Amino acid sequence: MSAVFHVALAKPLWPAAKLSSPLHQTTPCPMKANPLNDTIKFLALGRKFSSAVVILVFQLQSSAQTSPAPAEPEEVILLSPFEVEATQVNSYLATNSAVGTRIAVPLESLPLTASVVTSDFIQDRGWTSLNDVVRQVPGIRRNGNNSDEFTIRGFRAGSARRNYFSDAPAFAGERGRNEMAEIERIEVVKGPTSVLFGFGNPGGVINILTKKPLAKQQTVLTLEGGDFDLFRATIDATGPLAKLGEGQLLYRVIGAYLDSGGFRDFEAYEQKFLNAQLQLNYKKRTMVRAEVRLQDLDEHEAFILMPFEPNTGTLALPERTYNTGGPDTYAKQKQITTYLEATHVFNEHFSLRAAAVRDEHYYNALRRVGAQIPPAQVPLSNATTVVVTGNINDDKRQIDSLQLDFTGSFKLPFGTLKTVVGASNAEAKARVSSLVNTNLPQRNFPIFNIAARNYSVGNLADYFPAANGVSNEKRSDRVYYALAILTAFDERLTLLAGAGRGETKTFLNQPLMANPISRGEFELSKPQFGASFRIVPHVFLFANTSDSGVANSRFPDTPEEGKNYEFGIKVAQDRFSGSVTYFDTTRRNIQVGRFDGLTGLTFFELSGEESSKGAEVEFQFLPTDQFQLLGSYAYLDTEVISDLERPARVGTELPDAPRNSYRFWGKYTFKGGPFDRLWIGAGYMFTDRMRGNRNPVTFRVLVDSWSRWDASLGYSMEIGRANVDWVLTMENLTDEDYIDYFLVRGRPFNAKLSARIRF
C-alpha cells in the first residue's frame, strides 16, 4: 500500500510573525459581534442542532422499520484501468492514481510527483472549500479572487480538472467554484502535464475525482452550523434503480445548500447545488454514465485586498471587518454542466473511455473595487484613503469538449507494458463585458475613519464600458497524446515515456479598441520521460522531465512554454509513506494581468522568464492503528529572470510563493473504555514571508509570515439503523490576524458543528 509524498531540503525556517502595522486600527466595527456572545450562541446552536438531528434520525429509523426493504447485493464490477482505490489500513492513504498517466497505477512506483487527499481526511477536517483542501499539499497556494484558482510551485495552475478531463475547466474564465459535497478525493500531479492534459502550466495540475453511482443503496445527510451564521445542509443518495437484462441501472443525487455570513462587513453567501447522475453497468464490462450539474451562487463581496501603495510597498491594516464593498454590491455565478462518459473493457488487454462535456458559466456582478493608496499619501503615516471604482461585470462562457482514451496492458517476458493513446478537442466561446465608474460619490474611501465611509455604488448611468473590457472570444484546442509505462524485473524498474501534440486557434474581438481583431494559432509537440527504481523493498528512486505549453489569450501568436526536471526518493509501506522531491522549473512568455487601482481597468502584458527551484516533503505515519500523523513541507526558491515591462522585478521572488511552508495534522482515535469511538485531531500550518499579489505592479509589497493552529473533535454513534458522525472543527485557535493570499486577510477564530448521518 502506498502513496506519494514530498520532502524538502533542510533550510533555515523563518520564525512565525504576527501581522502588524503601525496603522493598525483597534476601533471595533459597528457590525462586529462580541466573541463571547458568538461562543454562547454557538454552544446554544450546538444543543439545538443535536436535538434536531437525534429526532430526525429516530424518525428515519421508525420509517425504515415500518417499511423494510431487502438490500440488493452489491454487484461485482470488473475494475477498469480508469478506476482508483484507497487502502483499508489507512483511510487517509490512497494506493493508486490515474492523475499523471490517465490509467490507474500504483503511486509508489509512479515516476512522477503526485499527492492525493482522500474523502476521509476531508471529512475529518470539516472542509467545505477546495481552497482549504489543496493548501495541505506542499507548494500549492490559492491564487483567485472569486474562483477556485491556484498556483503550484509559484506558477499559476488555473482551475482544477474534473475526472481527468483535459481542458474544459481551464476554459471557464477561471470563475468556477467547486462543491465539496460531490468530491470523492483530490489529486495533484506536479510538473508540466501537456502530454495528457493538453495545454497547461509548468507547475502542475489539480484533478477532482467526483462521486459516482454505487450498486448498494446508501443515503447520507449532513447538517452543519457555526460561527458567522453558517448553515449548510447536503444530501447524497445513491443505489440501484432497476435490472435491465444483463445490465443494472444506478443513480446518484447530490444536493447542497449553504447560507452564511462572514467576518467582514456585509459579507454573505447563498449557494444552491444539485448533481444528478444515471449510470448503466452492462455485463460487468461496459459503463455509460450521464450527469447534470447545476450550481447557483449569490454572494456579497469577500475578496477584499488590504490597502497598499505599489511604489513604496506600503501595506496598511484597518480593522478586521474592513470591506470596501457595501450592502448594494453582489456577485452572482451560475454554472450548468452536462456530462456523458462511457467505458468498455474489451478484455484483459484493451479498454476504452470516451467522454463529452458542455460547461456553461454565467457571471454577473456589481462591485466596489479598490485597494491602492494614492501616491500623495505616503509615507505610511499619511495613508488615510484608497481609491475605489465601481465595476459591473456581465460574462457568459460556453465550452464543449470531447475526449477519447484507448488503453492497453500487455504481459512481456520481463514485465508489463501499459499504454494509453488518445485525443481531446475543446471549443470555447465567451462574451465578456466590463463597465467602470470612476465617479462614485466617495471615490477616496477612508481606511480608518469608519464613520466617514460611504458605500454607495453611484448612479448606474455613470458606468461606461472599458475599452479592453468588452470582447468576444473564441478558442479551439486539439490535443493528441500517447503514453507508455513499462514495469520490469519483478516490478523493480518502471519506465515512463510519452509525447503530446497540441494545436490551438484563438480569435479575439474587442470592438472598442483601435485594433479590435486579433487572431493566432500555433502548434506544440511536448515530450515526457520518467523512471523509478526500487533499490530495496518499499524504497524507490525516481526522476522525470517534461515540457509545457499554453496559449496566451491576449497574445495568441506567442504561447507560454515551460520546462521541468525533478528527482527524488519514495518510501511506501502500510505504516509509513513519504517522499523527498527536488525540482527545477522555468517558464517564459508569461501573460499577466495588470490591474490599475486608480482607474479600475485591467491591462495585459507579456513578461519574460521565471524560475522555481526547490524541494518538497510529504509523509504519513501510523505508529498504531489509533494514531495517524501527516506532514508536508515546501521550500521554494523562485526568481523573476527577465521582465521587459518592469526591469525592477528582475531578481525578485515570484508573487504568492513563500520560501518555506509546512503543514502537520495528527489524529488519535480512542478504542474501548469510556471514550470509545471518540477521536481528537490537531493541525498546525506555517507560511513564510512573501510578495503578496500576482499583480506585477505590487511586487514591492511584502506580507509577514504567519502560523495557525486548528483542531477537531469527532464522535461516532449508532441510533437505530443510522450511523451518526459528529465533528466539531475549530479553526485559528489563537485568533491570529494574518494575510492569507492575494493581500486578503485570513479568517479569525471560528468553529462549526456537523452531523453526518448514514442510513
**Overall morphology:** globular
Q: Helix count, per DSSP? A: 4
What can be said about the biggest beta sheet?
22 strands, antiparallel, barrel
Q: Could you give the distance between the termini?
A: 30 Å
- Number of discrete domains: 1
Rg: 26 Å
Stated plainly, the CATH topology is called Maltoporin, Chain A
Share in helix:
under 10%
Tell me the CATH superfamily. Answer: TonB-dependent receptor, beta-barrel domain
Return the average pLDDT rounded to an integer.
84
Structural class: mainly beta
Enumerate the spans where pLDDT stays under 50 for 5 or more consecutive residues: 1-79
> Would you count the extended β strands for me?
38
* Percent of sequence in beta strands: over 45%
CATH secondary-structure class: Mainly Beta
- CATH architecture group name: Beta Barrel
What is shown here, in short?
With 759 residues, this protein is mainly beta. It has one domain (35-758): Beta Barrel (Maltoporin, Chain A), CATH 2.40.170.
